[in-house]
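Field reference: sequence -> structure
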Amino acid sequence: MGRTVWYPGHMAKGKRQLEALAANIDLLIEVRDARAPNLSSSPMVKLFTPKMKVWVVLSKADLAEEKVTKQWASYLKLHGFPTWPLDLRKSGVSQLKKELAAQKPSYRDLRIAVVGTPNVGKSMLINQLVGRRAALVGGIPGVTRGVSWFSGQGFLLVDSPGILDPHSDPRAQRMISWIGSSRGQVIGSWEEHAKDCMSFMIRAGLWRGVKDTWGLEPEGTPAELLEKVGRRLGKLMSGGVVDTENAGLAFMEAFATGKFGRMSLEKPGDPPLWEKL
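Structure field:
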């Protein structure tokens, strides 16, 4: 049986390091993906609550439906989590910085831990909060491989590796790889991920972006749709046979990076997203 979870050693190490630091942290900022705030919630939050304040940044807000993101922000605030929807590729953190500054003790810097699943935008947030490129930013999940401190503008921030829950439902592990927060190739083939994602998009009424981008109607089986994607993108092997693995990879990259337009995968109060698989 293939692997159902990606949980390398640096995640376990980062978790232990954060547990050791918990007593020295003033405030936790959890970064979630605005397209799927429940799916992308961090298993680390329970280590810190209810001992300290937890604030939420909904990253990649430019890739989610604005109306649904506002619903999530209201829902999370109602449950005690001040929330900021942000596009971290732009600045947009001035209000967050102002409100963080108000939390600063008079005698030292405010100590903040930034947590989240892999590739959700933690290091980008730190770069903006300290006003310089202090943390390594990359598009590969797991790029920050240990706990590191960064200081600037009255803040002392600890960054950590993106950490997943190794005990979560295998379907959740698969779906979180769709938005780029896990290594999909470790827990399945790109062909399998693409076919599952296509089925989900059609059932959830999210196919419009694929139609608008590539002109493909949601007709046929996922295998047939993947064949069409492969031919549309020229993912062919000798003899004109579609390379379904590369076609699946291209589809999942387009999905993860928002090529199909703004898309929210879940709304507040929905059952767990993975139950739809």
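Note: Confidence is low (pLDDT under 50) at residues 135-140.
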